[in-house]
Amino acid sequence: MGIVPESGRGAAARVGAHLDASAAADPHTLRAHNLGIVMRMLRDHGSLTRKDIEQSTGLVAASVTNLLADLSGRRLVRDVRGGGAEARGRGRPRVMVEQVPDRCLALAVRIERTRVTAEVHSSAGVLLDSASRSVTLAWGQPGDVAHAVAGLVARAEGIAADHGGLLLACVVTVPGPVSHENRIADSVEFGWGHLELVELIRAAGVPSELPLEVINDSNAAALAEHFALPLPRPGVMLYVEASIAAGVGGGVIADGRILTGGRGFGGELGHVTVDWRGRPCHCGANGCLSAYIGPDALLTSARLVDHAQLAGRQAAMDEFRARLTRGEKRAVDVALRAGDILGAGMRSVYDVINPTTLVLGGYLAGMRRWIEPGIQMQLAPRTEKLAPVAVESGRLGRRAGLVGAARHGLLPLFDDPTLVPPAS
């Protein structure tokens, strides 16, 4: 999204897509847009000189100075000295601009069966705190989850106060689809259906002025893995992950945002149909991707069910990986077939989403060597005629969901930095 001139005819026609198309752009909107672009540049590059910003945006030096003064007045950016001539011992030191590392914070919360884990991240990508609370969940009941989340919010507010910062959002991740109204539609892992978790958390004491959102954990992980890719990042990215606890999930990232569809339930790549007359899936349908590359399906095909019953599914999956590494035929055949099946599912998605990159997470990342050939073979009839798809391994591992939740909560700041008031 390019810089919008803050004056001049035709400026409104060039305002970013996040604005209401039916509303004319006023000077404040144009300024917020330009401030957001500067903030996004600093987010993506860490630190820049004023000259870097001028050259990338096409703005004159005076305009860049004015924008940076505005951001500095909100304590969002600061000048730092170093590098360049100073490092060589001669001349004036180069002045860099960077985000204030602890000014704007977001709390990311992950709900699991026995524990609620939280991390406080800053807009500059600094992890400021990590904490957890034990919880008791009965099947189909939220138990004491809301009170645990409320306690973690209170802790985060204290950390923000200690740093003189602002807690901008709390984003809670859960397995299963979540509507745009923050209603957990169906969590197979917890037995939750149509649960109004936000209302429960508010009732537990979280203040109404703090933005509070619930999102799907795989969607959050997808966003984190997108930002972990090197620049320039793909415009559209698919993320598919598989774990022992939650099975197969995924997400779609378009232009740096989670694509959740009209009601919020998009991105469930684990339920792409690969055989409509095939194996039953826990979602109620037949032939879903999850039914073929989920942990139970892989362990059954690898003849490790007894191992899983004796030592647990994680130990059985570790044994499967060990057999893969040793090149044992059955394990390799199972992995190769999983690649074919995953590729078939992605072929169905290719013409709808047209991704440029597919990122593999969870245990799929460790199997990439064996499953990527099948993915590319299945995609070849389309990619050879149209455009290729790059396959990448996830970089963040188990923390991806928390990192992505924090990123999601901080997105409004990078759209409109004027949400943060001037520092007193």
TrEMBL record:
InterPro entries given in the database record: ATPase_NBD, ROK, ROK_cs, WH-like_DNA-bd_sf, WH_DNA-bd_sf
PANTHER family per record: BIFUNCTIONAL UDP-N-ACETYLGLUCOSAMINE 2-EPIMERASE_N-ACETYLMANNOSAMINE KINASE, ROK (REPRESSOR, ORF, KINASE) FAMILY
Domain of life: Bacteria
Species per Swiss-Prot/TrEMBL record: Demequina sediminis
Family of this protein: Belongs to the ROK (NagC/XylR) family.
Pfam families tied to this protein: ROK
Gene this protein is translated from: mlc
The protein's name in its UniProt record: Protein mlc
